[in-house]
Amino acid sequence: MAGKKRAKPKRPLPPSQRRGVRIYTLKVTLIRGPISDEFDRANPVVSRTLAMRGDQTLADLHWAVFDAFDRDDEHMYEFQFGERPMDPRARCYGMAEDTSLELDHRSRLADHARLDDVGLIVGLTFFYWFDFGDDWWHRIQVVAIENAPPGGAYPREVGRVGPSPPQSSYDEDSGRDEDDPEGEEDPDDEHDAGLDDLDFDELEALADEDLLEEAEFLKQKFPQLSEGDLIDFLKEAEEFLRKEAPELLDEVDDDEPPPDSRKPEAT
User: DSSP string spanning 182-238?
Assistant: First the structure.
């Protein structure tokens, strides 16, 4: 009929307001991370079981795991749907600081991936990688998928095994590492001195000084070197200079007095 407006089609209700939504029960187990041997022995299993709505995203799952493991320092993360961590064939979902950040070619944005849309089925296992430096790895298993009435707060923690390990063993207040309370140096971490530790000005200075001055300079800069190491270091420095800047050594040789003039003066 003319003049009668057509009714606008109704927009579908969001999943949380429908008669029922999918609720995913996910068991998140810590499988790798920078934990102490003592903690590992005392807590062979550390896991959290979470309930999530299907319209929530993998980014929501990230924050749920973050809170469930009592973490307080944010880092990058990635979800990997593969047979094992770092499976090159895995389907990955990562994060971006902003929309201009290019992700790895395998990655999709986690905050655009709803749980209902990533192919979760009961028994499926996938992996969650948090902090690309400390490498906290988690195995996530889909324990159950149920229909539930809308309402209620999600995500929610519904199970917990073991205490949360410290996110970092470094204590900012004391400046000490809890794994090394005495602050002792690890001999494996000792840095071997080499020519790469000297800039060219320092190498040039070695060419202008006598042996004792050179040795004294290197002792101050590299106290871990023995006397034998000092001699080897000086030989290496001289060989480097002869190859890369022979004119410096030539200038030093030109400045030296002829052999006869080195005789002690008569008294």
Answer: T-PPPGGGPPPP-GGGS-HHHHHHHHHS-HHHHHHHHHHH-TT--HHHHHHHHHHHH
